[in-house]
Write a structure and sequence with these properties.
The complex is a heterodimer of chains A (about 80) and B (about 140). Chain A has 3 helices and no strands. The chains are: A mainly alpha (about 80), B alpha+beta (about 140). Chains A and B meet through helix 1, helix 2 and helix 3 of A and helix 1 and helix 2 of B.
Chain lengths: ~80, ~140
């Protein structure tokens, strides 16, 4: 007999599957666009986000952390196998 | 459309032309070429050179400005920043770049998922996931 916990897990799995399908459909639709249209979509989204949340000070510059990790990755990738 | 990002991408193409250094776009702009976009406020690139000073020297020729104190501070992470002249301080509106002479493998064909297996950076999550997804400026029409 299914417990309430079982039913909750089933429902959560179902929601997860639906979300994954939606993400996949979004991705497929996006990839059907031309490269220029994909760039335009990024630029439109970025402007919309900026309109909604204008830049403010003080701001946190995460470049040091981000690029330290990127460079570590690049150094690792450049080592001979 | 975000005009500042468009200007920065054009400036990156100008840097490539002025220096002869291959420049690939990474970060949010590159992600948007391979997967549904996320918003971004700057242009992140990797310059195919061992010398970032070549990029810094060419900045004025493409209408960008470098702040010596900022450049010195960011050198700790082997990267640098070129800003739009109207954003000399405060939140970054510019090009962040590092220099690397390795060849980045390109995602091949359309056979990839939004996650793009193999192009995730271990240990980087959230906004940093897929930061090494990259795209050539020419492919973006820049």
């Amino acid at each position: 007999m299914a417990t309430s916990g079982d039913r909750l897990r089933e429902q959560m799995a179902k929601v997860g599957r639906i979300k994954a399908e939606a993400r996949s459909a979004d991705a497929e639709a996006h990839l059907r666009l031309s490269p220029g249209e994909r760039l335009a979509a990024t630029l439109r989204l970025s402007q919309a986000a900026l309109d909604l949340f204008p830049r403010r000070e003080p701001w946190v510059d995460d470049a040091l952390e981000t690029w330290s990790r990127v460079n570590a990755r690049l150094r690792a990738a450049s080592k001979p196998a | 459309m975000n005009d500042e990002l468009s200007r920065l991408l054009a400036a990156a193409a100008g840097l490539e032309a002025a220096t002869g250094v291959k420049i690939v776009v990474v970060g949010g702009i590159a992600r948007g070429n391979w997967a549904p976009p996320r918003n971004t406020e700057e242009v992140d690139v990797i310059a195919g050179t061992g010398r970032l000073d070549r990029i810094l020297e060419a900045a004025p020729s493409v209408g960008l400005v470098v702040i010596p104190e900022e450049v010195a501070a960011l050198a700790v992470a082997d990267m640098t920043r070129l800003r739009l002249p109207e954003h000399l301080s405060g939140p970054n509106v510019g090009i962040d770049t590092t220099a690397a002479t390795i060849t980045l493998a390109a995602p091949a064909g359309a056979d990839f998922s939004p996650i793009v297996p193999g192009f995730e950076v271990p240990g980087l999550t959230g906004d940093y996931a897929g930061v090494l997804l990259h795209v050539e400026l020419g492919a973006l029409g820049c």
